[in-house]
Specification:
Length: 130
């Protein structure tokens, strides 16, 4: 969904750490409608990547639900910090979800990007436990 419009074959999308990553996938009528992946880089933090929603379904909240679902699961696994590389045009999407930019803009796969990050509650109770 992300790389094919750029002319990259589907086989070029595999990441060496993909097998160890958490995959959340939304289906609609047997078709993949959206996905988000997360790779733990330490016991408490990691990287959100490959967030994608079919163009026809964008703007309907599916992407936000995928990220929220991921964020609900991560504290159960001890993850309290998430970072990502956001394409510049989707920075507002992630800002609405509580992510903040940091560092300088950069280019990845010939597209302007920003580093973004977010701290998560340390438990599924949102830090309210005693």
């Amino acid at each position: 969904m992300l790389r094919e419009p750029l002319g990259f074959p589907r086989s070029a999308v595999a990441f060496p750490f993909e097998q160890e990553s958490l995959h959340l996938v939304a289906h609609q009528g047997g078709t993949v409608a959206g996905c988000v992946l997360f790779h733990p880089e330490s016991p408490s933090e990691g990287r959100l990547f490959q967030m994608a929603v079919l163009p026809a379904l964008q703007g309907l909240g599916l992407g936000a639900r995928l990220v929220s679902g991921l964020e609900a699961e991560l504290p159960r696994r001890g993850i309290v910090s998430v970072h990502l590389h956001a394409r510049a045009h989707v920075v507002p999407f992630y800002e609405r979800l509580g992510y903040a930019t940091y560092g300088e803009p950069f280019t990845e796969v010939n597209i302007p990007h920003r580093h973004m990050r977010k701290s998560l509650p340390s438990s599924i109770l949102g830090g309210l436990e005693k």
